[in-house]
Design brief:
Helix content: under 10%
Shape: globular
Distance between the termini: 28 Å
Strand order of the largest sheet: 2-1-3-10-11-12-13-14
Order of helices and strands: EEEEEEEEEEEEEE
Number of strands: 14
Largest sheet: 8 strands, mixed
Radius of gyration: 15 Å
Structural class: mainly beta
């Protein structure tokens, strides 16, 4: 298994794909994420159509509403807009009306075919899709072929 990470330089995130060419057939490409000073992590798939964020229990000092449990959520950033949220237990929730988080061009990109793990969730990116599962098996798929939750 080869892994690649990224570091934080000021407010900018970057990652290096060094070593990716050395992967053997069937090996998983893993992108390691570093949390912000408030414990959050966020990333987009390469196409920029889906953005995901983990927020720890209690939220951050900048959150208007404090959350009672940690959560992992992904937003479909193109029409039709949808927000999928995995809390600490139970199936994900899906919303069609919400405020977009505003992922930016310098958000960390999770390349097509790569995986990342954070908190209780593992996500694998496709070209225009993502599948995220919590350790207990609950999760969701967002993609052009249709979305699913379980």
């Amino acid at each position: 298994m080869k892994t690649t990470g990224f570091g934080i330089f000021g407010a900018s995130f970057f990652f290096a794909l060094a070593g990716a060419a050395d992967l053997q057939a069937g090996e998983t490409r893993i992108l390691h994420l570093n949390p912000s000073i408030y414990g959050q992590v966020w990333f987009e798939i390469e196409s920029g159509k889906i953005g995901c964020m983990y927020t720890p229990k209690g939220g951050t000092p900048h959150d208007a509403i404090k959350i009672s449990e940690a959560e992992f959520k992904c937003e479909h950033l193109v029409d039709p807009y949808r927000l999928y949220t995995l809390g600490e237990r139970g199936p994900p929730s899906v919303k069609t009306e919400f405020d977009l988080s505003g992922f930016s061009e310098d958000s960390t990109k999770l390349p097509n075919g790569w995986t990342t793990r954070w908190w209780l969730v593992t996500c694998k990116a496709g070209k225009d899709s993502i599948e995220c599962k919590r350790k207990d098996g609950h999760g969701f798929f967002i993609g052009p072929s249709g979305d699913r939750v379980w």
